[in-house]
Amino acid sequence: MAVTGAKNLVPNFDDLPADKQLVLVDLVLQHGRAWLVKFVNTLEAVKTQHWTVAADALQDSSWFHEVGSLPTQRGGADVAVLAGTATAASILASRGK
């Protein structure tokens, strides 16, 4: 269901790198498609694969601060993966320590 929601928001979802897909699915899973659709700037940047712009737009939201901005917290982790400064695998590994 979350994958379908992400695909509905980003028509080129299947062409995106797997780690970026993971962030989108995570956002839809946690908050729902109706919530993510409000992030117009982030979604437009994702569709054009402008990852720094997508990360900056997500980071500028109140959501980012509400869920945690540290690299091991949801907001910081999702932004880092979008920006390319971390991988989902490295974040998961650091949470396991």
Keywords:
97 residues, mainly alpha, 8 helices
Structure explained in plain terms:
The chain is mainly alpha-helical. 69% of the residues lie in helices and 0% in strands. The chain is built from eight helices and no strands. The longest helix has 14 residues, at 18-31. The protein starts with a helix and ends with a helix.
Main sheet properties: none
- How far apart are the first and last residues' alpha carbons, in Å? 31 Å
Shape: globular
SSE pattern: HHHHHHHH
In brief:
With 97 residues, the protein is an all-alpha fold.
Topology:
Blueprint: H1 2-9, H2 18-31, H3 33-36, H4 40-47, H5 51-59, H6 62-67, H7 74-83, H8 88-95
Helix pairs in contact: 1-2, 4-5, 5-7
